């Protein structure tokens, strides 16, 4: 089985409504199709990298390449773990967790998106809560960080609900205009206080060496 060679394929996170797992090719194709159908209002661009401004076929291809690149470039000291989120048997979005020098710094970053039809149902909170459980309870993280543009109220609301605090700003150029990102940081104590979404983690033990643990 592929999980014998790449244990991450056996890692699964469960929340009340979602299952998060590293996708096989069929699930990855579903995610690419979801992205091609649109993940945000075309009038705005919520990402620093403007990958969703491309034609649908290029958007879909970029999803595939992003996942394959993360697999090929995986190192215990520099990794990017990207799950598909599955609800009612279908892919509804993706949730990422990444880190550099995690064994020493004990800090992770997160990023995610949902298909437009799946937004506004609280799934973003469950997705983030799942990977935070993996980070803090499963891997022993001390901090988690996130960032969203000032007008991305949905992302900021998820962060606040899960206990993040403001951590400064970052400046970016998006669509040839200057935009401000709001950085957020979550420490272990705050995570424990805001921890309300039940999460079950399966298949973690064989993966630990891949995280440098």
From TrEMBL:
Reply yes or no: does the keyword Acyltransferase apply. Answer: yes
- Kindly name one Pfam family recorded for this protein: Acetyltransf_3
Q: Which domain of life is it from?
A: Bacteria
Under the heading SUPFAM superfamilies, the entry gives: Acyl-CoA N-acyltransferases (Nat)
What residue stretches are annotated with the N-acetyltransferase domain?
18-189
Top EC class, one word: transferase
Q: What's a Gene Ontology MF term here?
A: acyltransferase activity
Q: Which InterPro entries match?
A: Acyl_CoA_acyltransferase, GNAT_dom, Ribosomal_N-acetyltransferase
Which EC number(s) does the record attach to this protein? 2.3.-.-
Under PROSITE patterns, the record lists: GNAT (PS51186)
| Alphabetical keyword list | Acyltransferase, Transferase
PANTHER family (UniProt xref):
RIBOSOMAL-PROTEIN-SERINE ACETYLTRANSFERASE
This chain belongs to the protein called GNAT family N-acetyltransferase
Q: Please give the organism.
A: Paractinoplanes globisporus
Lineage, uppermost ranks: Bacteria, Bacillati, Actinomycetota, Actinomycetes, Micromonosporales
């Amino acid at each position: 089985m592929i999980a014998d060679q790449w244990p991450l394929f056996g890692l699964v996170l469960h929340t009340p409504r979602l299952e998060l797992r590293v996708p096989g090719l069929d699930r990855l194709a579903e995610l690419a199709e979801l992205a091609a159908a649109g993940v945000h209002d075309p009038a705005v661009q919520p990402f620093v990298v403007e990958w969703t401004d491309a034609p649908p076929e290029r958007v879909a291809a970029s999803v595939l390449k992003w996942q394959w690149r993360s697999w090929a470039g995986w190192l215990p000291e520099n990794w990017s773990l990207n799950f598909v989120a599955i609800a009612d048997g279908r892919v509804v979005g993706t949730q990422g967790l990444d880190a550099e020098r995690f064994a020493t710094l004990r800090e992770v970053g997160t990023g995610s998106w949902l298909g437009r039809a799946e937004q506004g149902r609280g799934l973003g909170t469950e997705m983030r809560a799942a990977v935070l459980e993996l980070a803090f309870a499963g891997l022993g993280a001390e901090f988690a960080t996130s960032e969203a543009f000032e007008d991305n109220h949905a992302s900021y609301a998820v962060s606040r609900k899960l206990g993040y605090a403001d951590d400064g700003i970052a400046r970016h150029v998006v669509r040839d205009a200057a935009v401000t990102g709001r950085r957020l940081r979550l420490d272990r104590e705050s995570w424990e206080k805001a921890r309300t979404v039940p999460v079950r983690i399966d298949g973690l033990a064989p993966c630990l060496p891949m995280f440098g643990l």
